[in-house]
From TrEMBL:
Keywords: Hydrolase, Metal-binding, Signal, Zinc. Its cofactor is Zn(2+). Belongs to the peptidase M20A family. GO terms for molecular function: hydrolase activity; metal ion binding. It comes from the Eukaryota. InterPro entries: ArgE/DapE_CS, Bact_exopeptidase_dim_dom, Peptidase_M20, Peptidase_M20_dimer, Peptidase_M20A. CDD domains: M20_ArgE_DapE-like_fungal (cd05652). The lineage of its organism: Eukaryota, Fungi, Dikarya, Ascomycota, Pezizomycotina. Residues 1-17 form the signal peptide. Residues 205-307 form the Peptidase M20 dimerisation domain. This is Peptidase M20 dimerisation domain-containing protein.
Length: 403
């Protein structure tokens, strides 16, 4: 049986509630292989559509979490919600189909996205059905495929209800506060399958991360008399130049390549004719080797050396900058990838894996459909065939984890 426009039309008759945003519905190409069965394919498309259509930019995840909770509860799952940072509008979701909340297998991903919101669209060309919209890859594709794979195995009696639980968290795209909060749930699974876009391969690891804000302090003055002040912008520029030179000297590894520095956001001053009193930059370092502590010390040393020239007699102890680290950061993360039949990949982005405390002997896998190269962009999209393949691959990972 081939998919056709009837697949999209049939979504309106499913048990799922209407999406929270306008959805452009177009026919699905008849050339799509029906690898997981038409019923499961329809449910997969519908679930994926509703997740994307419900805007869930980090900090605004309540609606999508509530919808997903209701959907799983309708299927008979037990739902526990957890406030994040004591905020009742930001909820992690723990769901389990049996009586055991602390199952041997935990399947997890995140339900927040980066801004801005892009609406759901689906269209077909001669060979593919393409689904786009914010979160269509990162990471609502993983969420939808994980749920369908789990439900399919339960329906086929290949998975026992007490063997598995799902954990979907908020805040991954910002500081990982959702997953860090999940440590309080005191879950002790033997295996965790995390979902992020890995191009349908198992990730063997990802780079570490150290993020910080660099604040520069000056003294305001009229731009016609700059010697009466000190430009925070000049202090900042000098410090950033030193960091760019430092990036060429930071540790490398065969597995993860080079440690990189990204200057993501710069602000400073109030007007072109005023010597800037304040300036700042937000910076992210992707660590290929070494520890955040080691690299943080090198950052301090480079910035201090670069800004010493701005000290004036009698003001040697005056603060010209401060470095505010966004947490402790983490070193490169090695991930289990010992499952036959999967290709492997290393990725440069961060995940929630280091935010969840690891138990001795615990196995951790990272897999998901779609490419990180289109995630966070205005052309984020995934093919239906990749989404369906992910269901099959998650089934393999689930069965491997419990074997």
């Amino acid at each position: 049986m081939h998919l056709s426009a009837l697949v999209v039309a049939s979504l309106a008759s499913t048990c799922l509630s209407a999406p929270s945003a306008n959805v452009e519905q177009q026919p699905i190409g008849a050339s799509e292989p029906n690898s997981i069965g038409s019923t499961w394919t329809r449910e997969l498309i519908s679930l994926h559509r509703h997740l994307i259509s419900t805007e869930s930019i980090s900090g605004n995840e309540y609606d999508v979490g509530q919808w997903l909770s209701d959907h799983l509860k309708h299927d008979g799952w037990t739902i526990e919600t957890q406030k994040v940072n004591n905020d009742s509008s930001r909820l992690n979701i723990l769901a389990y189909p049996g009586k055991v909340r602390n199952a041997d297998l935990l399947i997890s991903s995140h339900i927040d996205t980066v801004p801005p919101f892009y609406p759901y669209k689906i269209h077909s060309n001669d060979s593919e059905t393409i689904i786009s919209g914010r979160g269509s890859v990162d990471a609502k594709a993983s969420v939808a495929a994980q749920i369908i794979a789990t439900k399919k195995l339960l329906a086929e009696k290949k998975l026992k209800p007490d063997d598995v639980a799902l954990l979907y968290v908020v805040g991954e795209e910002v500081h990982g506060d959702g997953m860090r909060a999940a440590n309080a749930l005191e879950l002790t699974p033997k295996t965790i399958i995390f979902g992020e876009p890995t191009e349908g391969k198992l990730a063997a690891g990802h780079k570490g991360m150290l993020g910080f804000t660099l604040n520069a302090f000056g003294k305001a003055a009229h731009s016609g008399y700059p010697w009466l002040g000190r430009s925070a912008n000049e202090v900042l520029v000098q410090a950033l130049s030193a960091l760019m030179k430092l990036s060429l000297e930071l540790p490398k590894s065969d597995k993860y390549g080079s440690t990189t520095i990204n200057i993501g956001k710069i602000e400073g001053g109030v007007a072109g004719n005023v010597v800037a009193q304040n300036a700042s930059a937000q910076i992210a370092i992707r660590i290929a080797a070494g520890t955040p502590d080691e690299i943080g010390k090198r950052v301090h040393k480079a910035i201090k050396a670069a800004t010493d020239e701005f000290k004036t007699p009698g003001h040697e102890d005056e603060d010209m900058y401060e470095i505010v680290f966004a947490g402790k950061g983490y070193a490169p993360v090695d991930i289990d990838h010992d499952v036959d039949g999967f290709g492997t990949i290393t990725v440069n982005y961060g995940t929630d894996i280091p935010n969840l405390d690891k138990l001795d002997g615990q196995k951790r896998y990272l897999y998901g459909p779609g490419s990180i190269l289109v995630a966070h962009s205005d052309h984020e999209a995934i093919t239906l065939s990749d989404l369906k393949t992910a269901v099959q691959d998650y089934e393999k990972l689930i069965l491997h984890s419990l074997s």
